[in-house]
Specification:
This protein is an alpha/beta fold. The chain is built from nine helices and seven strands; from the N terminus they run E-H-E-H-H-H-E-H-E-H-E-E-H-H-E-H. The strands form two sheets. The chain has a five-stranded parallel beta sheet, sandwiched between helices. The chain is globular and about 40 Å long. The structure holds BIS(adenosine)-5'-pentaphosphate and magnesium ion. The site of magnesium ion has 4 residues, from helix 1.
Amino acid sequence: MNIILFGAPGAGKGTQAALIANEFSWQHVSTGDILRSAVASKSPLGVKVGSILDAGGLVDDELMFNLLRQRLSQPDCQNGFILDGFPRTLQQAKTLLTMGFDFSCVLYLEVEQEAIIQRLSNRRIHVASGRVYHTVYNPPKNEGLDDITHEPLIRRKDDYPERIRDRFQVFNESTFPVLDYLASQIEQKTIHSTGLAAEEIFLTIKEYLDLKNK
Ligand code: AP5
Ligand code: MG
């Protein structure tokens, strides 16, 4: 089964995608993680997009689409994938739906934006794997270190208050309107997430996906 996970910056897409991937053995495909790995490895792509990511802007549609096409054609995506961070523009959405994949649903993680600032300011990530932590809500076993590799965690450069505000603005102006278009083409399920713990949100998602997956 292929699904699209949709939501504002910090809505919990990466957190829920990891839980869904673990439960259903689908591949978690995060365009943000792919771009951050490219930046960390200083590849030509990484050099090109680093400043855009840091500023919270959008990487151009054609580049994103080529990147996604490459990723989704790999064998590990053939049994199902969870798309996290794509599409972000109407053009990306329209092109995605011409690729021939069957999408079972769009899961929209709805969270009040005031609740998100605090989440993002205290987020820490392991760049190589994309694993996500929160210093209070989801702390690593050893402070500052990834649970699996024990490598250092970092704070994303776009997780400082001014950048977070810029990302919300980009989301509200360019990405949120895409939801209407997606909903006109694919079944949409809104997951009300404000004030709920990640595990509670996941239970709702699991119940819904279990029914669809039967
Ligand atoms: P991307 O990495 O996709 O960033 P984003 O959409 O801004 O989303 P985040 O990763 O910040 O948040 P999330 O929803 O995954 O939340 P998380 O689970 O981590 O993209 C980054 C950049 O790449 C973009 O700005 C753009 O420049 C570029 N880019 C990517 N895709 C692109 C595209 N298609 N086109 C153009 N450019 C593109 O959770 C956040 C925190 O909250 C964590 O600390 C977590 O532990 C905590 N948390 C999670 N759930 C809960 C809960 N229920 N309660 C309390 N805390 C929680
Ligand atoms: Mg994420």
